[in-house]
Amino acid sequence: MFEAKLQQGVIFKKIVDAIKDLVKSVNIDASTSGLSMQAMDSAHVALVSLKLNENGFKDYRCDRPITLGLSIENLSKILKCAGNDDTITLQTDEEEPSSLKFFFENQQASKISEFSLNLMSLDSESLGIPDTDYSSVIQMSSAEFSRICKELSSISETVEIETSKESVKFSVQGDIGAGSITVKNNQSDKDVDRVDLQIDQPVKLTFALRYLNMFNKAVSLSSTVSLNMSEENPLMVEYKIDDLGSLRFYLAPKISD
Amino acid sequence: MKQSSLLSFFGNV
């Protein structure tokens, strides 16, 4: 028996919206400790990693580990039928399920919707991601990071991110010209202004803005985002989801020819 | 510059 009930079903809707442009199908692994998922885009440039802890769910039961192979597009179609204030319950009784049941219930418990999504058997393509002590960690407003990436992507396809003890600089060079946006360390009480820089070693890395813009679809999951970088390593962009877990994106850097 | 692949950083499990 597997059953997971999310009080705020809208969070699940937002997660699926945030990854649906990046990955087409995913294996969700359910275990006693919660749900996890890892999937790469078809070009193997970006990876999404989701972890939801069992104690973040209103009800959670998983008697034995199961893998749920899902088409994100089809999952998205079913989740469109859930209201933003609904609870969402995932359920299956089978040991090797061929479908996953969904229950959506509104706050007044006056409307209950029930759907079943056919599952797929997917080759798992799990990568071992080493635990990394990142040499530059930036925590800032997710909306502000999203705005910067969006603005710069009209000038260039790539952005160079350079950290120093005091600031992080986003630079672009394109056919029409060049520019940069520098964000300084700022210990404001307001989330929207706050910028936390933990710089052990400065880094300078270049990334494709197209992917960063896709990651930023997760902006509504968290008011802050953390950018974790080490020289010659993939960027890790993390959105923490309150008590539930985290949504992480990894992006391979652009390297010199 | 060229785009690198995640496969060159992370190993298969």
Summarize the structure.
The complex is a heterodimer of chains A (257) and B (13). Chain A is mainly β and 257 residues long.
Explain how this protein is built.
The complex is a heterodimer of chains A (257) and B (13). Chain A is mainly beta. Helices cover 14% and strands 46% of the residues of chain A. Chain A has four helices and 20 strands. Chain A has helices at 9-19, 72-79, 142-152, 209-215; strands at 2-6, 25-31, 34-40, 46-53, 59-62, 66-71, 87-92, 99-105, 112-118, 127-128, 136-141, 158-163, 167-173, 178-184, 195-199, 204-208, 224-229, 235-241, 245-251, 254-255. Chain A is elongated, with a radius of gyration of 20 Å. Chain B has 13 residues and is mostly beta strands. Helix content of chain B is 0%, strand content 31%. Chain B contains no helices and two strands. Chain B has strands at residues 2-3, 11-12. Chain B is rod-shaped, with a radius of gyration of 9 Å. The model of chain B has no long low-confidence stretch (mean pLDDT 90). The chains are: A mainly beta (257), B mainly beta (13). Strand 20 of chain A pairs antiparallel with strand 1 of chain B, so a sheet runs across the interface.
Set out the fold topology.
The complex is a heterodimer of chains A (257) and B (13).
Chain A: E1 2-6, H1 9-19, E2 25-31, E3 34-40, E4 46-53, E5 59-62, E6 66-71, H2 72-79, E7 87-92, E8 99-105, E9 112-118, E10 127-128, E11 136-141, H3 142-152, E12 158-163, E13 167-173, E14 178-184, E15 195-199, E16 204-208, H4 209-215, E17 224-229, E18 235-241, E19 245-251, E20 254-255
Antiparallel strand pairs in A: 1-5, 1-7, 2-3, 2-6, 3-4, 4-19, 7-8, 8-9, 11-15, 11-17, 12-13, 12-16, 13-14, 17-18, 18-19
Helix pairs in contact in A: 1-2
Chain B: E1 2-3, E2 11-12
For the structure shown, list the relevant keywords.
heterodimer; A: 257 residues; mainly beta; nine-stranded antiparallel β-sheet; five-stranded antiparallel β-sheet; B: 13 residues; 2 strands; 0% helix
